[in-house]
Every structure is written in C-alpha cells, then in structure tokens.
Specification:
single chain, 248 residues, alpha/beta, 7 helices, 10 strands
C-alpha cells in the first residue's frame, strides 16, 4: 500500500472556502448561531430575519455592528423593542449547521412560517431558466453554494456564495429587501429541501430552481403553495415538479 506524504500546510495557506460561526443578536438577545461564509452578512441577516418572521422590511433593522468572538463573529442588529422581544421568545434552541439551516427551530410552526398559496403567475420561461443556469455555472466557486436572484425579465439581480445553501438564499433575499426589488426566480447550486421552499414562498418569489434532486416533502409543500419548482440536472431536460403543467 502506498503511503501518502504528510504535509503540514499552514491554515492561512489553504485555499478552501471560509466558514465561521456567526452569532446573530437582536439588541441584547442572542438569537441564533449559524456556520456561514463571512461576507455580505448584513444581507444574510436581513434575509434570515425575514424568513424567521422577525421583520417585514429592511427598515425594521436600524443598524448593524460586528464584534469578534473567540472563533467567529457577533453580528448585532439594532431593532425596536417589540422585535427584540419576539426574538427572545422564539430564539433558536441550538446551533444551526451549514448543512441544515433550520436545525434548532423551537417548533414546527416556526419551521413552516410564512407558507401560503402564492398568486398564479406565468410559468418561468425556458429561456430565462437556461440563461440563469448559465450564469450559475459561470459564477460558481469551489466549495461554496451559489444562489442567484433573477427578475421577471430574466436579468440577474444578485448573486451570493456561502458554505450553506440556505445562507446563500438568505443573502439573495436580503439583497432584494434592501434594494426593494425581490427576484421572481431563485436559482441555487444544491438540492432542494423544505427550508428553501419556505424561504422562497415567504419572499413571494414565483419560482425556485435547484440542480440536485429535491426531497419529496419539499415538492409536496411547493405544490401546496403553488411555487414553481424546477429540477435542473446537467445535460438533461429541465423538470417542472410544481406550479404548472407546461412542458419545457
């Protein structure tokens, strides 16, 4: 059996993706800690708080400050007292891992927050989907998930990268809240889980496209909410699993 050489590579010399524990506090209440790539954290916090039902608009968070922790960062959001009280009442009971963004949710009701039937809208065109998938391929980064926000004309509004697919979606939704232009289509370089459907429906987007097979429960919830859910395998036809019956 061949023996591999052992190399003591300095951590700072490694080229892998960045990942840090990010603790989000609302005023003085530590709400949740997630493992995330530490960029565009304000957009992440906006999207995360919106998905959790803590805020309804970007202006609900007045300011952000950051403080170093022993291993990560503390991101503190300044909010009105009523929002801080809500955060204290429903704060996460555990740490959220990058592979499962809603781990530690205190109840099933919070897990499914914001789910509703979306208004019927025209089916996302194959042309727009193909263009978005091409952009996704161009902008992917090794070791990170990529999420794109696409408008109703097929134009890219935002792009985010993160070690966690849910964080990348939060960053795109947060950018939409900050700019006042929420995407019509979210595209993510990962499988689809219930939490991604929840975030898309909560944001009111028409369609979600993922490049890996979705879970059965995510498809069921997407159909109940009338979210257009697309499964986009490489070198295969795009499959519409929810939200319409037209062939692509």
């Amino acid at each position: 059996m061949a023996v591999l050489d052992r190399r003591e590579v300095p951590i700072e010399a490694l080229s892998g993706p960045r990942e840090l524990p990010i603790t989000l506090a609302l005023n003085q209440t530590d709400y949740a800690t997630v493992l995330a790539t530490p960029d565009h954290l304000k957009e992440w916090a906006l999207g995360f708080c919106f998905a959790e039902g803590l805020i309804e608009r970007a202006a609900d968070i007045h300011a952000f400050t950051t403080e170093p922790l022993r291993h990560g960062l503390l991101l503190r959001a300044q909010v009105d007292a009523r929002i801080a009280l809500m955060a204290q009442e429903q704060r996460r009971v555990g740490t959220s891992m990058s592979s499962c963004g809603r781990c530690g949710t205190a109840s099933e009701a919070l897990l499914m927050y914001g789910l509703q039937q979306l208004p019927e809208r025209p089916l996302m065109s194959a042309e727009h989907l193909q263009g978005a998938l091409a952009w996704l391929q161009q902008q992917r980064q090794v070791g990170l998930h990529t999420a794109l926000g696409i408008d109703s004309h097929g134009q890219q509004l935002s792009c985010a990268h993160d070690i966690g697919r849910h964080n990348a979606i939060d960053k795109v939704v947060g950018a939409g809240l900050a700019s006042g232009a929420m995407p019509s289509l979210l595209v993510v370089s990962s499988r689809c889980s219930v939490e991604l459907v929840q975030k898309a429906v909560r944001a009111g987007v028409a369609a979600l496209a993922c490049v890996s097979v979705p879970s059965a429960l995510s498809v069921e919830i997407a159909r109940l909410c009338r979210l257009q859910l697309f499964y986009c395998r490489r070198a295969a036809p795009i499959e519409l699993l929810s939200g319409g019956s037209e062939a692509l």
